[in-house]
Design a protein that fits this description.
The chain is mostly beta strands. The protein contains twelve helices and 75 strands. One of its GO terms (biological process) is carbohydrate metabolic process.
């Protein structure tokens, strides 16, 4: 049944209610605004109720027992410009009843009562138990171009939604005024994927059925305005925010279930006549695909024509080549959708949709999303899979929404963190941003950005627009290895993420969530304490690093126990963690106690899975918990006809401390093509204590005493006290998925060990930085747990080639007592600038067990400081960012490659030494306090022919020592002589001053450090 007005409301024959008492019928005019007047007439037909108020009319129609629609027509004529674009056909309207209570009508289902006050006409919603959900403080108003609803705001009421709001959304909108509509602002504060829907912690949600832009002020009172002379809104009453999101997506469409390759990373570039990369051809995409394979990095799909005016050739051959490499081909719809059918038949499986068909409003974007999604499905057996910015309500059912074209930076990471979890509160299950943006960026920002985006369901990296290609292997080591680590972790978590994607398809609630969604009674979860973190599913809490530091402060952990994913350390929430050690290879990541996480170990692609591949479960036992794995073929649409299967794993363990741990693996229910009929299982059980034995059903599994012996065995178990504070590894032979089985860990414990709190903690205090060949002191602190420690050995590990003083033993410790040991570390004389990771370890005995605790920390290694008179272009650069291409040594700024500049020239004088930069630029040097001054001559290179505008600065240890006035292409060169006595870190900075960055080629000619 189509949810048009006639179909929804015409259920029973019209019944005219008794006439209301005579009242003034005129509306109230306040300035240029008119507020609806008193009720002068009332009629109903089934679940539809119409009220007349002078020349205006209001209509209420119930969609379900807890969902209804209110329409107001100021001139008495109802219109619906949205039609059936967004709202899907709904079922039979619910049974309703009405009553005249004198001052009001009451319209009721078995769940809610809508009060309609008569003089003036005003609405209020209550649950059947009498709990008020919302109430208008005055009637709906209009001014000829917009309509507004005004609601009372509760004392503690919080608000979420309105779509993808860049830089916010995962914390409450209370007190904020938000724009809901297209603005093409893709930076912080923009709203590229707006949704005219919000939800309240009071237990309701509102969707304005419109394409018009709006302004929602969650002030006191709450006012929501849309720029149209009609009012049309659906209301949802729910038991929770998840329930409200579910009702909204029941109305406007559940999020799609992507193909499983859509949950792998994607890559996009222009491979035909690319002005930024030289002459290329579409088949060159296969060379990049080979680079992913050679670098052992996952890649699910590629857009091969990502660029304005970039066409394609050899399409079918390109698609076939990608499939051979376990990847799929995507295309950008830059020329519209007319060719989509032929493209899909040639192998296209992904459509990016932000060009050509996006016209004057959201309807064009939504129509394009639906058409492209359907075009893939009509011409293949694949699932529709599209990407688009500037979308609207309903787009969740056909596409991924991404936040637009941005420039990679630390600030980009910061404001993206709250954006995507916040969008989940509007039913947008798949929102994301390009890894490190499409412009700018650096090796560090790319690595930090990628590691947390591995915990988003969908993500891609975009090349060809920035000065340097942005595949995850482009920056070399150590970045390539770190990026590989997180991409492979994302890949191994596919069964977890895919299960949550299936849940989103059923419930409307996306995988990435603000803390407030799972912890609605926690006031801190609604506020800034939780702004820069999010949940992936219910079990992972992700707190990204968003500045150039190896320490993360302000990580808020809500109630419950949270386990550091890397070290196994337990934090008892609610608590705020400061000083979290996060070297570049470490994403602050926590797992909720009680979690059971399904994983595919060791895969680079989902297609690496075979009939005999193991299914692994990462288990953090605490209390009685369960997880139900969802599986289907991952690619076709057969799951819509019931071709899928589910398997539950239920874990029973003590709430705390010693006791048996039981892992009950249920029989898999359901069937699909490619289903494993039997498979081996792996279990990583974080107990913190060794069990006495491990049984598979009634039979004891063999125990091994080393990792090597365990790895080669077909089945068995072993306990590793040094692995994340104590982990039991279990493996089985292949077991039929049609039968249930049980793993019992006898005399084991909940996560945290047999004696809660017996585990100690390690802290590391390294120097902030250390020069090559220079020795430094590092303190390792060990704090005993609540049972004390009988003995403890403290040690320090450093990178290969470093020298470290030997381990030290400390005596017995009382509960909570701290012991410290100081170690001397020395990097090799040829150590390169970068980050070195040190690991402090305590091996100790407590509560009758041998235990291990460890902590990692980073320090920066520095090159040898310069000596004598040293050209800046001859020194190593600790960091170098540039507005276009790399900064050049002894050349002017060129294009995207190193060494492609020209001779440095200022006012006709050529310089053989110096640095050619492009604003905005920042080059960092290590002087180690050994230099007295910097001299140079600065200006905009003559090749710019007189235009451009920049300022030069010298910054030492965070303090600006000198800045030039604005220098243009017509300015005389500026001499530089800056004292630097005692300076350790010096930055040469070029900043744009005219807002264009076009031609801002700033030269540091003859830049020289004068050192001891």
């Amino acid at each position: 049944m189509v949810l048009a007005a006639a179909a929804v409301f015409a259920v029973l024959a019209a019944t005219v209610a008794p006439s209301p008492p005579a009242r003034a019928a005129t509306a109230t005019t306040e300035g240029t605004e008119t507020v609806i007047g008193a009720v002068t007439g009332f009629s109903h037909s089934g679940a539809s109720f119409t009220f007349t108020a002078g020349t205006a009319k209001a209509r209420v129609g119930f969609v379900s027992a807890d969902t209804f629609r209110i329409e107001v027509a100021p001139d008495g004529t109802f219109t619906d410009p949205v039609g059936d674009d967004i709202v899907l056909p709904q079922g039979k309207p619910p049974a309703t009843r009405w009553a005249d209570r004198g001052d009001r009508y009451e319209l009721s289902t078995d769940k809610v009562t809508l009060r309609v006050y008569k003089a003036p006409l005003r609405f209020a919603l209550y649950r059947v138990d009498g709990t008020r959900l919302w109430e208008e403080t005055r009637g709906i108003s209009w001014n000829g171009t917009s309509t507004t609803q005004t609601l009372a705001r509760g004392a503690d009421e919080q608000f979420y939604g309105t779509g993808e709001q860049n830089g916010s959304g995962n914390t409450s909108h209370r007190g904020k005024t938000l724009k809901v509509g297209v603005d093409y602002d893709w930076d912080e504060g923009g709203h590229p994927n707006s949704v005219p829907f919000y939800l309240s912690s009071a237990g309701y949600g509102v969707y304005r059925n419109t394409y018009a832009p709006g302004t929602y002020a969650f002030t006191d009172p709450v006012t929501t305005t849309e720029q149209e002379n009609r009012f049309d809104a659906y209301y949802f009453a729910g038991d929770s925010a998840k329930d409200v999101i579910g009702q909204y997506t029941e109305l406007t469409g559940r999020p799609m279930l992507p193909p499983i390759y859509g949950l792998e990373i994607g890559d996009s570039d222009c491979y035909l006549h690319n002005a930024n990369r030289g002459e290329r051809h579409t088949l060159d995409a296969l060379k990049v695909a080979d680079d992913y394979v050679e670098n052992d990095m996952p890649l699910g799909w590629m857009l091969v024509n990502d660029g304005y005016g970039c066409g394609y050739e050899n399409l079918a051959e390109t698609a076939e080549g990608l499939v051979d490499r376990k990847m799929q081909m995507g295309l950008w719809t830059e020329d519209g959708l007319d060719k989509l059918a032929d493209q899909v038949k040639a192998g296209q499986r992904v459509a990016k949709l932000d060009v050509a068909w996006v016209g004057d409003g959201y309807k064009f974007a939504l129509d394009g999303c639906k058409a492209a999604y359907q075009g893939i499905e009509d011409n293949s057996d694949a699932r529709g899979f599209t990407w688009a910015p500037e979308s609207w309500s309903g787009a969740q059912r056909c596409g991924v929404q991404w936040s637009g074209d941005q420039s990679g930076s630390w600030d980009y990471i910061r404001w993206q963190i709250p954006t995507y979890a916040g969008a989940t509160m509007s039913g947008l299950a798949y929102t994301t941003g390009d890894v490190d943006g499409i412009f700018g960026g650096s090796a560090k920002t790319y690595t930090r950005d990628l590691q947390w985006k591995a915990f988003l369901p969908t993500v891609m990296t975009m090349d060809g627009w920035a000065a340097k290609d942005k595949q995850p292997y482009q920056y070399g080591e150590p970045y390539t290895s770190i990026n590989r680590k997180y991409l492979k972790l994302k890949e191994s978590l596919l069964p977890y993420m895919y299960t949550y994607a299936a849940q989103a398809h059923r419930t409307g609630v996306g995988p990435v969530r603000p803390l407030a969604l799972e912890y609605p009674d926690d006031a801190k979860a609604a506020g800034d304490a939780a702004k820069y973190e999010f949940l992936t599913g219910e079990d992972f809490l992700v707190a990204p690093v968003y500045s150039d530091t190896a320490v993360r402060d302000g990580i808020y952990l809500p109630k419950g126990d949270w386990i550091d994913y890397w070290s196994g350390r337990i934090y008892h929430g609610p608590t705020t963690v400061d000083g979290y050690q996060a070297p570049l290879d470490t994403l602050p990541l926590f797992v909720k106690a009680g979690a059971s996480v399904p994983m595919w170990p060791g895969v680079r692609s989902y297609q690496d899975r075979t009939a005999n591949s193991p299914l692994a479960w990462d288990v953090y036992p605490q209390g009685s918990t369960s997880f139900t794995l969802y599986e289907d073929d991952g690619v076709t649409r057969q799951h819509r006809d019931g071709a899928y299967a589910e398997q539950q794993v239920a874990v029973t363990a003590p709430d705390h401390g010693a006791g048996a741990v039981r892992i009950a693996v249920g029989a898999e229910n359901g069937d699909f093509v490619g289903q494993q009929k039997s498979r081996p299982y792996r279990f990583t059980v974080h107990t913190g204590s060794s069990p006495r034995q491990v049984r598979l059903d009634s039979g004891a599994l063999p125990r091994f005493t080393s990792r090597a012996a365990f790895d080669v065995a077909a089945e068995g178990w072993w306990y590793d006290a040094s692995d994340r504070a104590g982990v039991v590894q279990v493996k089985t032979r292949a077991v039929s998925t049609a039968r249930a089985f049980r793993i019992d860990l006898d005399a084991a414990s909940a996560v945290g060990g047999k004696v809660p709190g017996a585990t100690g903690t390690v802290a590391l205090t390294p120097p902030q930085e250390l020069g090559a060949g220079v020795s430094g002191k590092v303190t390792v602190d060990f704090t005993a747990g609540r049972t004390g420690a009988d003995t403890a050995e403290l040690s320090l590990a450093a990178p290969e080639g470093w020298t470290v003083s030997p381990a030290r033993s400390v005596g017995g410790l009382e509960p909570g007592q701290r012991a410290s040991a100081e170690f001397t570390v020395t990097p090799p004389a040829d150590a390169q600038p970068g980050e070195a990771v040190l690991t402090g370890t305590a091996r100790y005995r407590a509560a009758g067990e041998d235990l291990v605790a460890a902590q990692r920390a980073a320090l920066r290694t520095m090159p040898a400081p310069p000596e004598g008179e040293t050209w800046a272009s001859d020194l190593p650069w600790l960091n170098a960012t540039n507005g276009w291409g790399p900064p050049e040594r002894d050349r002017s700024n060129g294009e995207s490659a190193a060494g492609d500049g020209h001779p440095l020239t200022l006012n006709g004088t050529a310089y053989t030494k110096g640095i050619g930069a492009h604003a905005n630029s920042d080059i960092e040097f290590w002087l180690g306090g050994q230099c007295s001054s910097l001299t140079a001559t600065v200006g905009i290179d003559d090749e710019i022919n007189g235009y451009g505008g920049v300022s030069f600065s010298v910054v030492a240890d965070g303090r600006t020592l000198w800045s030039s006035p604005t220098v243009s292409g017509k300015s005389d060169p500026v001499p530089v002589n800056v004292p630097l006595t005692g300076a350790r870190h010096v930055h040469l900075v070029v900043t744009d001053t005219d807002g264009t960055k076009s031609g801002d080629h700033g030269d540091w000619a003859d830049a020289k450090f004068h050192c001891a």
